[in-house]
Amino acid sequence: MPRIAMISPRHATGELARAYRDIRPIMPHVGKLVQICSIRPDWVRLSVSNMVFTLEAGTLGRRDKELLAVATSRAGGCRY
């Protein structure tokens, strides 16, 4: 069971629901890594902006960056 309370897009209301709607064109599936920020809708937007920047900037391709992120998370036992 996660120790961080998360609000899924299905249960979001108000500003959080708007934040989830706003990021949908960029991130159709709102993963747990974003949902852990759900207590602060401004953090939801910021975390998605940071992810997009990280995946798009630099010389390493997005696919390789995503593979590295998955491998790192798995090696560290991250549940999010």
Describe, in plain words, how this protein is organized in 3D.
With 80 residues, this protein is mostly helical. The protein has one domain (9-75). Helix content is 55%, strand content 0%.
Keywords:
80 residues, single chain, globular
Number of domains: 1
Sum up the overall morphology in one term: globular
Query: What class would the helix/strand composition place it in?
Result: mainly alpha
| Averaged pLDDT | 90
Compact overview of the structure:
The chain is mostly helical and 80 residues long.
Please specify the SSE layout and strand pairing.
Elements (H helix, E strand, L loop, with lengths): L13 H10 L8 H4 L5 H16 L5 H14 L5
Helix pairs in contact: 1-3
